[in-house]
Design goal:
Layout lengths: L38 E2 L17 H19 L13 H14 L4 E6 L5 E8 L5 E6 L1 H8 L3 H17 L11 H13 L9 H26 L2 H4 L1 H6 L6 H19 L23 E2 L1 H4 E4 L5 H14 L4 E2 L3 E5 L12 H17 L1
Parallel strand pairs: 4-6, 5-7
Antiparallel strand pairs: 1-4, 2-3, 3-8
Helix pairs in contact: 4-6, 4-9, 9-12
C-alpha cells in the first residue's frame, strides 16, 4: 500500500452542492443524553473529479500513462486504449472515465504522480462512515474514578492509551487539536458575562462543565502518555472478573485492543486517513480533515455538549469534501493482485462504536 505522501498531479476539485443545515429550536440549550452511537453531521456532500489544466511535459506524461495503463489492463483483464483522436490530457481523462465504468464502483481510478514523479494510474477504495463524528468521551473515566471503580478504570485507561498513543487520536485539552479550539471558542462566548444574555443558573452550569472538562482532561491524559497503561492491559485483564453483561462487554473491548495492537503494532489510524489525498485543491474551509471528526472529547451529554455539536455543524455546513479511510493501489509496476486492504480501519471504527455503546 502506498502512503499519504504521493504527489497528486491530476486532481479532482470539489463541486459545490446545495446544502441545508437543519433548523434548531430557539432558546437555551438543554442537556441531552448521548445514545452511544457516533454523532452525525447535519448535511451531506458529494465530489466528482474535474478536468485539470496545464499539465507540464505532456509527451513524457502520456508515455508514462500508457505504461501504467498496460499494468492496469493486465490485472483487471481490460482492453482500455488511449483515444488518439483526443489531445492530452483529455485523452487520459477519457480513459480514466472509461476505467471507472468498467470497475463499476468496486474501486475508483485516479491519475497520480508517484514518488519518482512518474504519471500513473492508481485505484482507491474508501470506507464510508456516513458522515459520522467519532468522538470518544473522557467523562465516563472521571465518573468511574469518583465511584471508586478502579478495576474498570485501569482497563479503560489501557484502551484509551491505545487510542491516544498508537492510533493517535487527538486529545481535546491539547492546544494543537481541533476540539481544543472549539471548546476554547465556546468558553469565551458562553462565559462572557458582558453579553448579558445568559442567566446565572446556566452560567454556573456552563462554568462547572468547562472546569471539569479541563481538570479531568489534563489529569487523565498524563496517565495515557506513559506506556504503562497499555503495556499492562493484558495483566489487568487477567485479574478482572466480569460480573454481568457490561463487564463482559468491557472484557471484549480490551481483547480487541490487545489483538489490534498485536496484529498492527504501532499503526496509526491516520495512515489510512491521508489529509486531502483525494481533494488536494480543496480550501481548508471547505474540507473536513480526519483529525476534525476523529478525536477525544469531554462528554456526550450536558449543556456544553449541545453547544459543541451546534458549533461543529455550523463550521462544517459549508464544506464540500472530507477525508475518509482509504486504501490505494498504484500501477507504477506490474501488480499480481488487487490490494485494497481496509480491514484495519474497519476494525478500528467498529471498536470505537462499541466503546461508545459501552460508555453510555
Amino acid at each position: 500500500m502506498v502512503t499519504a505522501s504521493i504527489d497528486r498531479s491530476f486532481r479532482r476539485k470539489p463541486r459545490p452542492l446545495a446544502r441545508r443545515l437543519r433548523s434548531t429550536e430557539s432558546g437555551k440549550a438543554k442537556p441531552a443524553p448521548c445514545n452511544g452511537a457516533p454523532h452525525f453531521l447535519k448535511h451531506r456532500f458529494g465530489i466528482r473529479p474535474a478536468i485539470p489544466e496545464d499539465i507540464p511535459q505532456a509527451a513524457r506524461a502520456e508515455k508514462e500513462f500508457r505504461r501504467s495503463l498496460n499494468y492496469f489492463n493486465k490485472l483487471y483483464g481490460f482492453d482500455l486504449k488511449i483515444d488518439t483522436s483526443l489531445s492530452f490530457p483529455a485523452n487520459v481523462l477519457a480513459c480514466i472515465q472509461a476505467a471507472e465504468k468498467l470497475l463499476g464502483g468496486t474501486a475508483e481510478p485516479l491519475v497520480i504522480k508517484d514518488r519518482k514523479g512518474s504519471i500513473c494510474i492508481a485505484t482507491v477504495k474508501t470506507q464510508s462512515l456516513d458522515y459520522s463524528l467519532y468522538y470518544v468521551p473522557v467523562e465516563p473515566i472521571a465518573r468511574l474514578l469518583r465511584e471508586g471503580k478502579k478495576k474498570h478504570v485501569v482497563l479503560l485507561l489501557g484502551i484509551y492509551s491505545y487510542l491516544y498513543r498508537v492510533l493517535q487520536l487527538p486529545w481535546y485539552t491539547e492546544s494543537d487539536t481541533y476540539l481544543y479550539s472549539c471548546y476554547d471558542c465556546l468558553e469565551s462566548i458562553l462565559l462572557d458575562d458582558q453579553r448579558g444574555w445568559i442567566d446565572e443558573d446556566d452560567y454556573l452550569q456552563y462554568r462547572s462543565e468547562f472546569r471539569s472538562a479541563k481538570y479531568w482532561g489534563k489529569r487523565i491524559v498524563k496517565s495515557l502518555r506513559h506506556p504503562y497503561a497499555l503495556d499492562n492491559l493484558g495483566k489487568h485483564l487477567n485479574n478482572f472478573k466480569p460480573r454481568g453483561a457490561e463487564d463482559e462487554q468491557l472484557q471484549t473491548l480490551c481483547n480487541t485492543v490487545l489483538r489490534l495492537n498485536r496484529e498492527y503494532p504501532g499503526r496509526s489510524i491516520f495512515r489510512n486517513l491521508p489529509e486531502k489525498f483525494l481533494y488536494p485543491d480543496a480550501e481548508d474551509s471547505e474540507h473536513i480533515k480526519g483529525y476534525q471528526w476523529l478525536s477525544f472529547y469531554w462528554s456526550g451529554e450536558g449543556y456544553v455538549y449541545n453547544n459543541l455539536m451546534e458549533h461543529i455543524n455550523y463550521e462544517f455546513q459549508e464544506t464540500v469534501s472530507a477525508d475518509e479511510p482509504l486504501a490505494i493501489q498504484v500501477f507504477n509496476k506490474p501488480q499480481a493482485m488487487q490490494q485494497h486492504d481496509l480491514l484495519f480501519p474497519q476494525q478500528v471504527f467498529e471498536l470505537l462504536a462499541s466503546l461508545c455503546d459501552y460508555l453510555y
